[in-house]
Amino acid sequence: MITSRAVKSCGHADFGWLQARYSFSFGHYFDPKLLGYASLRVLNQEVLAPGASLQPRTWPKVDVLNLILQGEAEYRDSDGNHSTARAGEALLIAAQPGVSYSEHNASKETSLTRMQLWLDACPNRENALLQKMRLSTLAPLSLLASPDGAEGSLQLRQSVWIYHVNLAAGESLSISLKGSRAYLQSIHGGAHASTYSEQQTDLECGDGAFIHEEARVTLQAATPLRALVIDLPV
What residue ranges in 95-207 does DSSP mark as E strands? Predict the structure, then answer.
């Protein structure tokens, strides 16, 4: 089964210095039916004005995956760790209990646009505190994150596989799924999505889709498409 999550139905915020879209309950946006999906807790797209910052705050034990779409982000924590990530890069933070984290737009002239995912981490598993990689702009499908860091991907503290999709208009791609649930998110562009059981839906730019009990999802790009496929455990 595949069920779309239209971008116009997502939670929104506009504070001037911060504009945000929330796929699941986050901050002031609360929907008791949308508290996450399997181990995917948060999927936000946020734009920080030039020079703006998100003040230090603690996180639960989650893996925080940041995809930088425009600009340059700077991340700091209360233990003194520091990292930057630029457009086209992904940064994974293994959040720790009792540690506070802040995020800053490193530019005084350019907005920072990024997508952020939170994934529940297994209680007894620890990985590197910070991991970073460059996203492929050529491969139609690349493994962005996985439990074991396969294929040079970022290593998660959970049995989740995240794929980065990059298709030209008219191209199609079929992805086999390991778990009983998956989430599909358009970053840019629209696509027709169909599943092994012949369920189907159309996605526009920014739309998402819940996938349940399917062995495969096929994407046909209506326009140049950039998307994530998040393959989730039972």
Answer: 100-105, 112-120, 130-134, 141-146, 154-155, 161-167, 172-176, 181-188, 191-195, 200-203
Q: Which of 179, 116, 114, 175 is nearest to 147 (CA)?
A: 179
Digit-coded pLDDT (tens) for 77-104: 999 999 999 999 999 999 999 999 999 9
> Please, what are the domains in the chain?
2-232 (2.60.120.10)
What are the structure tokens assigned to 215, written together? Answer: 């062995």
**pLDDT the model gives residue 234:** 65
Tell which residue, 169, 192, 195, has the closest CA to residue 181: 195
Instruction: Decide: 197 and 147 in contact? Cβ < 8 Å.
Output: no
Distances (CA, A) of 203 to 148, 150, 162: 31, 29, 19
**b/e per residue 64-100 (b: at least 16 CB within 10 A):** bbbbbbebbbbbbbeeeeebebebebbbbbbbbeeee
Task: Show the tokens assigned to 160.
Answer: 């989740």
Decide: 71 and 87 in contact? Cβ < 8 Å.
yes
Calpha distance 2→192 (Å, rounded): 12
- pTM score, two decimals? 0.96
DSSP tag of 107? -
Rounded Cα distance, 90 and 132, in Å: 6
Question: Tokens in use for 119?
Answer: 């994934």
Which stretches in the chain have pLDDT values below 50? none
The H or E element spanning position 228 is: strand 225-232
